[in-house]
Design goal:
The protein is an all-alpha fold and 167 residues long. It has one domain. It contains six helices and no strands. α3 runs antiparallel to α4, α4 runs antiparallel to α5 and α5 runs antiparallel to α6. The chain is globular.
Amino acid sequence: MTIVKNILWLVAVLLVQWGFLQDLPLTVYGNPYLYLWFFLWLPFGVTRMGLYAIAFTVGSIMDAFEQSGGAHTLACLALVTAKPWVENALIGYRKSDNNEGVSHLALVPYLTTSSVLVLLHHTVLFTAENYGFDNPVLLVVRIVISSLITLVLLAITHALFSKKYAA
């Protein structure tokens, strides 16, 4: 049942990403990526191979829709590679049988952890999309603006769906 629930959440997040957020005229440089919430929502106990499989699948789906040539896959794989280390450094060690994820945290630790992971994801994504550091100012502007927009959406989503804030 948990796998079915996770798949349904993933489909819902990707539909929101592509139905509402993609090509949203917020700014020329900023593009929100709400699908990152799915990675933050995953419980701490997901195995490394499971994380890599999920990241590859989600990144490939995003690449297929956006035709970004593997940039999303690379960024998602970088995010899930760093995720356990970032969580351990910022939140502390969690038992692998713990079925809770970052989504069960209070807002400040959630945003701290999310900020590091979103900045990493966006840095890899936009560097891969731009094929390097040819225009570093534009690259930094895209990373910062997109990260801020994504973090605002993640904070709203966290407030709406986190069990920490549920009645």
